[in-house]
Predict the 3D structure of the following.
Amino acid sequence: MQVTRATFNDVMVPNYNPAAMVPVRGEGSRVWDQDGREYIDFAGGIAVNVLGHCHPGLVSALTEQGNKLWHLSNVFTNEPALRLAKKLTDATFADKVYFANSGAEANEAALKLARRFALDNFGEQKSEIISFKQGFHGRTFFTVTVGGQPAYSDGFGPKPGDIVHSEYNNLEMLSEFISDKTCAVMMEPMQGEGGIIVPDLSFVEGVRALCDKHNALLIFDEVQSGMGRTGALYEYINLGVTPDILTTAKSLGGGFPIGAMLTTDNVAAALAAGTHGSTYGGNPLACAVAEKALDIINTPDVFEGVKRKEALFREKLHEINDKYRVFTEIRGKGMLLGSALSNDYQGKARDFMVAANEQNLMCLIAGANVVRFAPSLIIPDEDIIEGLTRFERGIASLVAK
């Protein structure tokens, strides 16, 4: 059957507005559409394709597992899930892992765990969750309400209660909100959808201290910042601040859907048998691919490469900005970067994304005022240079209008 972009309008719910071109094949950091046009991919499936498209190691892991065992449900366990869980706990602060299918599901599990832990240990009055404005934690009704962007949660009826939003990087405000009724503080150690905002270290350390003072759990949402994207396996390692619960997804499966919640023995005990579950969580196919992705990523060479590639990105973006003066700053860390638009281009991030796409470059936005780049961690330097050359051409066409 022949399908085109027009088919989308006929058969798909209109909650998305995808690009005019339809990608059909990818290899490394390059993608080809239905007409054979080639694109450089700085979007990475929204920080998912951590090793690019069709990485041979991931293809091999999927093929091998696909010829063995596809699905069991959690009535049984399976070897890929157990191996992946062991490698994740060995590489992090965590003792226990819960597998889900997405970042939103991992965050849903984290929030339910925090509420259950508080109920079991402190009583039902300790149920408040504090998160941060412009935060993003998923699109389930619980996670989208905890996320600090009302545009995503308004319009669906009464929201889950006992959720408070503080200001990111404002420790004084958090100290006024938090109390012994707070069961958890949930935060991204670097805000992604909210604009690629890197927090002050003193803020993150202060959040940890306030949680300790009030017996509240600290949840780090590392769905976007995790799996090597910031030059360490997880950003909490760079910060030197350890959460009680960490969520991971996106890059975890390198393109295959999987999410996970990591926590300690003490906290995990609150999710006793039957308290939470997932039909597909811990699927053998997903866990086999994620195990291979973790094996490839969790190496000093990859982490050092991420830091070098960040420096190259920044150098070239500053060169572009010296010519066109369209950015106020380059934000972010590693292979999660954002170009914040100047006053003359406020609200036009999507225009920049579309202009880049017209020059055969795939990129993202993070809000209305930030162009976001989340490419493969192992993108070749020549693809970075060529991609930013195309980005510059897009900017030139936009500025000329």
